[in-house]
Fold this sequence. Notes:
Layout: H1 2-26, H2 33-41, H3 47-62, H4 74-99, H5 106-136, E1 142-147, H6 151-162, E2 168-174, H7 183-187, E3 191-193, H8 198-204, E4 209-212, H9 216-233, E5 236-239, E6 250-256, E7 259-265, H10 272-291, H11 293-306, E8 312-318, E9 324-330, H12 341-344, H13 365-373, H14 380-385, E10 390-392, E11 397-398, H15 399-402, E12 419-421, H16 434-446, H17 450-466
Parallel strand pairs: 1-2, 1-4, 2-3, 4-5, 10-12
Antiparallel strand pairs: 6-7, 8-9, 8-11
Amino acid sequence: xxxxxxxxxxxxxxxxxxxxxxxxxxxxxxxxxxxxxxxxxxxxxxxxxxxxxxxxxxxxxxxxxxxxxxxxxxxxxxxxxxxxxxxxxxxxxxxxxxxxxxxxxxxxxxxxxxxxxxxxxxxxxxxxxxxxxxxxxxxxxxxxxxxxxxxxxxxxxxxxxxxxxxxxxxxxxxxxxxxxxxxxxxxxxxxxxxxxxxxxxxxxxxxxxxxxxxxxxxxxxxxxxxxxxxxxxxxxxxxxxxxxxxxxxxxxxxxxxxxxxxxxxxxxxxxxxxxxxxxxxxxxxxxxxxxxxxxxxxxxxxxxxxxxxxxxxxxxxxxxxxxxxxxxxxxxxxxxxxxxxxxxxxxxxxxxxxxxxxxxxxxxxxxxxxxxxxxxxxxxxxxxxxxxxxxxxxxxxxxxxxxxxxxxxxxxxxxxxxxxxxxxxxxxxxxxxxxxxxxxxxxxxxxxxxxxxxxxxxxxxxxxxxxxxxx
Length: 471
């Protein structure tokens, strides 16, 4: 009921945001949304308006806003809201371009996006606070039974107890006697039923959710029977994902053609935040290409005038999942510089698979300036628009460096798109050792968040201006 009401509320917020944006555009706060649509859009009906609302609703559904968020973090829900409203705004921008709607100016779109985000995020946070207050007063509770009594089960129980605002009332544990069962009493919990009597307990007790924390390898058939029983009785079943001894990866379950697929993967680069990252890539790269177009033109002329050869240096690099792509840079070396690579290998100043020498004789006069200021890397914004790269990610590697890898853990960097900048850029660029560089890439992948991307982007600007570690 609440989730259905949220869908109606969100559509109403979209309408309200449109009203706020149209009033800002018109300068007449007395106009209603219907009046502005009739006057400004000159539509005989609201078909386009209704289609837009329908598309927005579907995008918000796809962003995962209408599923139970009881166990999810506030930050994750807020990010999903921002992603959903941003996608709606992108649809609006496309409509303004394709249909040439005069009303949809940049101010209009900015007000629509900002008001939608602020209202929806604030509403979600307020709803969470309200529901938490209600649950802490003993209302809207969900009674949960934990099957299993190992350390993971006890940790999960403590986590629920530590957050009463989630509204979970722990009934106790179900398990058979074993050597560690006494630890339940020391932890302050109780065993309410054995596994042999679990079916009867579920039939006669109020159980909203059941959490399975049994070792899967030795209890496969029993777990299958428990899930079937819960399915028959309409009890929500959760399975703690400790199927394997995962050191860094985590598992998520998805449904495909009637089959449940368990995916084991690393990092947090999935879901709504990744859509937001991609949206940020396209918007920032596109805006910088337009803003820096005079720099592109001047640099191209300087490269062409100061040395014979093409303006751009195009080289095959290794990207996400080891796919090859063509990377674009302004040429900073003499023509056919690649052919002299073998002769310079002995001068390599960097350990590991990377080749780097500080005073490379192949670099042109203007090339040294372009490298020092990182202007030579500006064409890579086109690689970002092509989705070969991201603004932030592990450094893109030449084929020569890729072939020099000798440890598998280093290849995990290819699980994400390479970037123009990353932790290595703001921690010394080419001055850091190869091993440290690889560790920084792993740190980025393991700790990734949109906030981390933004911090790296902000730190990159002063690093570039200082010419930190440029070669």
